[in-house]
Amino acid sequence: MEMTKKKRISVHAQGGMLRHFFPSSTLKIVGYDKGLIWVGKLQPTNLSITYDIRIEYNIGCNPNIYVISPNPLPLAKDATKLPHTYNHEKQHLCLYHRLMNEWNERKMIAKTIIPWTSEWLFHYEIWVTTGTWHGLSLIHISEPTRLRRIS
């Protein structure tokens, strides 16, 4: 019996699932099934504010997730930058360890990246209040491809 490798999910299927779960969001397909830009609202808890999120995804690359509003995100007391971001000024979120293949093109953005973004926002809100990050910890050396786990 021949094993078949599961194919990547098309950009149109990714976008369709995002629109299904977030009908009031905006979606732009870039090129013919080459990438997408999704903008939607997330509220991690009933007590949370609503955040405007942008996801940029191109075939062959990891999705990039940005908080576009509020901008700037408030910081915890005595903090000088946001935790777990690739770029503080752009509010480019670090949601998972890219080198460990925690996300790949065979996974739905709506079922992985969106919940991970909501979880990041939840931990962010706790961090703003307490000054302690309670989510998964990574050391950010510089760019997204240069990360390592810490205990």
Give the gist of this structure:
The chain is an alpha+beta fold and 151 residues long.
Helix-residue proportion: 10-25%
Biggest beta sheet summary: 4 strands, antiparallel
- pLDDT average, as an integer? 89
The proportion of residues in beta strands is 25-35%
| Structural shape | globular
Overall strand count: 8
Q: Give the structural class.
A: alpha+beta
Instruction: Please provide the ordered H/E string of secondary-structure elements.
Output: HEEEEEEHEE
Which radius of gyration do the C-alpha atoms yield? Answer: 16 Å
As residue ranges, the low-confidence spans are: 141-151
Query: Tally the helices: what do you get?
Result: 2
For the largest beta sheet, what order do the strands appear in spatially? Answer: 1-2-3-4
Distance between the termini: 42 Å
Give a verbal description of the structure:
The protein is α+β, with helices and mostly antiparallel strands and 151 residues long. The chain has helices at 11-21, 113-130; strands at 26-30, 35-42, 51-58, 64-69, 85-87, 92-93, 138-140, 147-149. The protein has a 4-stranded antiparallel sheet. Strands 5-6 form a two-stranded antiparallel ribbon. The chain has a two-stranded antiparallel ribbon with strand order 7-8. The chain is globular. The N and C termini lie far apart (42 Å).
